[in-house]
Structures are given as structure tokens and as C-alpha cells.
Amino acid sequence: MARYIAFFGSINVGGNRLTMADLRWAFEREGFTGVETVVASGNVLFDFDERPTDGLEELFAHMMAERFDIASFVAVRSGPELAALLAADPFTDGDDARVHALLLSGQPDRAALDRLIADHAPRGAERIAGGARALYIDYVDGVGQSRLSNAFIERRLGLAGTARNRRSLQRILAKLAEATT
After folding, report:
1. Which InterPro entries match (predicted)?
2. Among candidates 52, 104, 38, which has minimal Cα distance to 75?
3. Is the separation of the CB atoms in 179 and 45 below 8 Å?
4. pLDDT band at 157 (very low <50, low <70, confident <90, very high)
5. How much is the average pLDDT of 112-129?
6. How many whole angstroms separate alpha carbon 132 and alpha carbon 125?
7. 165 with 99: CB under 8 angstroms?
8. DSSP letters along 69-138, please?
9. Which of 57, 81, 112, 115 could form a disulfide with 77 if both were Cys (CB 3.0 to 4.6 A apart)?
10. What is the pLDDT of residue 18?
11. Residue 7 in contact with residue 136, Cβ under 8 Å?
């Protein structure tokens, strides 16, 4: 069995209220084991046979729609993928609460990423860098002050995404390490 993390977008925001107990129940009902939630924003650790994560993403998006009538993008990463994501963060000099990884539905095209960076440059001070099925964003002045929204990014890249700050990703990785020791 491999250990995975599902990152749900649009949970407990914009009227999509869902308890983490209900989310765990849905995973267990689908036959997943070792189900735990970390932080009340839709981060689920679970065990499952080793397999490509894109099929799991589709399964969980369907599960959310069927069981809870919530349309949600879901990014699934393995423990090693999450560790690599954190290790590749180019903004280690930034504040852990302001540096985010936007987990994407696919690998951003280099031309689209360059266009995103150029289009956003006059709009704000954020730093943006590409990663493996992710963007790294340093919201220098804070997310609440930023004009760099997920919708702006998704339109330019043609990919869906859900973001977590580095502090949350570190907590999730620590929880994952506890579960595997």
C-alpha cells in the first residue's frame, strides 16, 4: 500500500461547507484505509494500492459531486511527490504563510507560464515559478492583498489548481511521516 494526500479545492469556502468527519466517512465508504484529515480545509491522507494519481483525482471529484453536491478540483500526490514539491520550492527566503504551492491538474506549458508571469507583472509584487504539476507563488504582501487569483492563473494556464501555503504543506508532510513510522 502507498500513502497519498488528496488536496481538495473549494472546501469550506464559498458556501461549500463540509465537515472533515463527513469527508473521512466518504473515503472509508469508497474502501480507502488509513484515512486522516489534516487542517480543516480538505487535506486527506489515505492508503491505497500504488497507481497513477490522475485516476484518483477523477474518482474523488466524482465522489464530491455525488455524495455532497460539491464541484471540487482534487489534486492527489504521493508522499515522495509532496516531499519533492517542498524541496524544489525556489522561494525559501519567503514567509512560510505567504509562499504557496498551487497544485495543478497538469504540467504547465512553458509558453503559457511565461505569458502568465508577463501578464501579472504589472499587477503585483508576487513572485511566480513553475514546478512539477505546480506553481510556486510568493504572495509578498499576503494573499488577501493580491490580485493574483486562482481564476486568473487557471485562465492563462488552462489548468485547474488548489493552493496550500508552505506551512500547511510542511504540517501535512510531517503528519505523513508520522503515519509511516
Report:
1. DUF1697
2. 104
3. yes
4. very high
5. 95
6. 23
7. yes
8. -----EEEEEHHHHHHHHHT-S-TTS-TTTEEEEEESSPPPHHHHHHHHHHHGGG---EEEEETTEEEEE
9. 81
10. 85
11. no
Is residue 178 predicted with pLDDT exceeding 90? no
Of 128 and 54, the structure prediction assigns the larger pLDDT to 128
| pLDDT tier at 78, thresholds 50, 70, 90 | very high
CA separation for the pair 42, 24 (Å, rounded): 10
pLDDT value for 17: 79
Beta bridge partners of 128: 137
Reading the block at residue 88, the C-alpha cell is 524544489
Which residue type is seen at 42?
Answer: G
The rounded distance, in Å, linking the Cα atoms of 44 and 175 is 11
**Which domains, ranges and CATH numbers included, belong to the chain?**
2-78 (3.30.70.1280), 83-169 (3.30.70)
Pairing outcome for strands 127-131 and 74-78: unpaired
Return the C-alpha cell found at 2.
502507498
Determine the 3-state secondary structure of 11 from DSSP.
coil
- Global pTM reads 0.92
Give the model's pLDDT for residue 15: 64
Looking at the DSSP assignment, which residues form a beta bridge with residue 99? 138
Rounded CA-CA distance 116/158 in Å is 11
